[in-house]
Fold this protein.
Amino acid sequence: MGRIAYVNGRFVPHGEAMVHIEDRGYQLADAVYEVWAVFGGRLADAEGHFARLERSLGELRIAMPMSRAALTLVLKEALRRNRVREGMIYLQVSRGVAKRDHAFPTTAVRPAVVITASTVDREGVEARAAKGVSVVTTPENRWGRCDIKTVGLLPNALAKQKAREAGAAEAWFVDDLGFVTEGASSNAWIVDGEGRLRTRDTNANILRGITRSTLLDVIAREGMEVDERPFTPADAVAATEAFITGAGTLVLPVIAVDGKPVGQGAPGPVAIRLRRLYIEQAKAAAI
Ligand code: PMP
């Protein structure tokens, strides 16, 4: 069975799914997106992702293309048509199609909506998580509004490519003061010598990760301590553990930073446990 995409109100074969050449997402990255993890055909952290979508759209003054309820139905239908039980679903909303001009179109345009769904091999993913991954660092070179989840991802793409060429799975951006901001497509965490969890606070120029936010709830419920104090790559190497979070990676142990082992150079007990607890929580709350 072939993949099916949703484009502006229609489900179409993936290979025939097209947007206009003057879509502002294509020309100007004037578009936002969301990615939900899918467990058992249900959307994980649905509320958080919808809330962030609305916020991102609001910051760009793009209207919600349809109600949350309608969007939920379309997302679920995309999962159904692609027979995705375990996987991810991607939603992109651009300002729409208009004659190329940097400023917003002066006449009303309809936001363009694209949805794609994909299956992940959970067993393969779990095997990878059990081994842990490496990260490399790269200078922070993104714009000042990383809190908006736009498709303007060129610095992230270049950072990820740098990681890949170094045999690593993720790149951590490091700001002018030497502190890690976040990953190219994930939030960054360590467990420090005192057993405290550390992750960058969301007043910094980072994306407010939904997985991060749900994990903070899980951590609070477990009575563990979090310190939203910035850390350096050297702090990560000196830490007992490190991990990343995101809808794609869930909670994924990091075993090396720039080739230097973190802790024992193997996934640590905190990250392994938090991964299990996050997945349990996400599955239980999925809609
Ligand atoms: N930071 C960046 C830059 C990202 O692209 C992502 C993934 N979308 C995240 C953090 C993690 O966010 P979430 O947990 O909402 O997937």
